[in-house]
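Anyone? Bumping this.
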Amino acid sequence: MVRHSEFTPSGDARSALAEPEPLGVRGHAMRTAQLSAWYGAQQAIDGISLPIAPNRITAIIGPSGCGKSTFIRCLNRMHEVTPGSPRVNGHVYLDEQEIYAPGVDPVRVRRLIGMVFQKPNPFPAMSIADNVVAGWRLVGGYRQKNLDEVVERCLREAALWDEVKDKLHQSGASLSGGQQQRLCIARALAVEPEVLLMDEPCSALDPVATFKIEDLMLRLKERYTIAIVTHNMQQAARISDYTAFLLAGDDRVGRLVEYGPTSEVFTNPRDRRAEDYITGRFG
Amino acid sequence: MPRDAYQRELQHLHDQVLILGSMVDKAVDEAIQSLARRDFDRARGVIDEDRVVNGKRFEIEEQAIRVIATQQPMASDLRATVAILYIIVDLERIGDYAVGIAKITLMHADKPLLKPLVDLPRMAEKARDMLRRALDAFVAHSVEPARAIAQEDDEVDALYDQVYRELLTYMMADPHTIDRATWLLWVAHNLERIADRVTNICERVVYEATGQMVEINVSTY
């Protein structure tokens, strides 16, 4: 696995390639600058500036209540549709374009920056195939021939095709938890996102299903930029290239405490609080 | 503090390393004493005791592997566990050098020592002093003492040079002394290697405390 010693902005990374970018390699970078978010009067995160490197997996870890889910939901403007008078301040950039800029359509943002949630949530009344293209239909795909191609491509990318190709018209709810989660990943991929956000995608899955999702993520990062919130420290250590550690202070406001290459964060964290969390001394 | 049982396991590992360290420290002392006094029972004691040393090393290794498998140590805990895995190898090797010296004692069964020992006990004392202080640094996670101790390897190397030159003069003056002079040279070599192993331990102490892998002092030999 390629490990960058430091964050490389996508522009530099691509200009460093001697050959033209191969088809399908996207390499979209995100970053936040001084990102803060509130639920009503209660601030949840404060001033988080974090790079999310292209074609890499960035893990966001931290104890419960540190704001990591809030943070990731700000990355595709989902925080603002959360109940509880949500508010966001600061900047989020996708390829240096501000996604909170006036005139930016939040629906388009969520198409480019897909999200997979903790609990697999396929549409129970829809078939497996219909689940895959549910979001894709909404953004304007409808030709039948093309549709079959999209279903197959996405299920293959989500490493689910071989398991479901003979029952594409059965209900999505008939699948196991791990399969359902991969179905949700296929659904997220159908709208051709540039970035995949994953909010504890394995916490409801058994170890075998978890390892399948992890293998899948390692393959997906060749095409997509991935940020994952996880409670599972070993998972972050196993699959991510970069790790960000968030921690809430006594004021219950989450802040970025440590960020760096995963191999360094997990062997030699700079911050005492990150060390204590990673070694299990608190949290 | 959460994970009390885990913390106790890590502490136990540390304690076991100290026990192994004191076992090989004693072995080196016994070996050099057995030579100085041509005490063959004592030499055989060192050789027999090495089995216990080796057993202790495997016991610690198994415990460390169990901690990795069951507790997934991270960050400083991971560095400590890995450092311990390396340190016990160096300690066990120090025990083997003590055995090497004890075997040389036994070679003297029907021959007197070439000369009364002067520099060899000094080398042994120096190496043992370095070993004990390296283990202290290991317990205290002290980087600077560890670096300083490793530098003292040069003193042991200098003593080795001195012993070598002195033994050469014996050999040149009287070829009949060549076998016994060579034996003593082997003893000096074993002691020199012990100090090198202590240097390795110091490097692990630095790694455990800082995460930096550095070669502190490259031995002349």
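Late reply, but here is one note on the structure posted above: The two ends of chain B are 47 Å apart (CA to CA).
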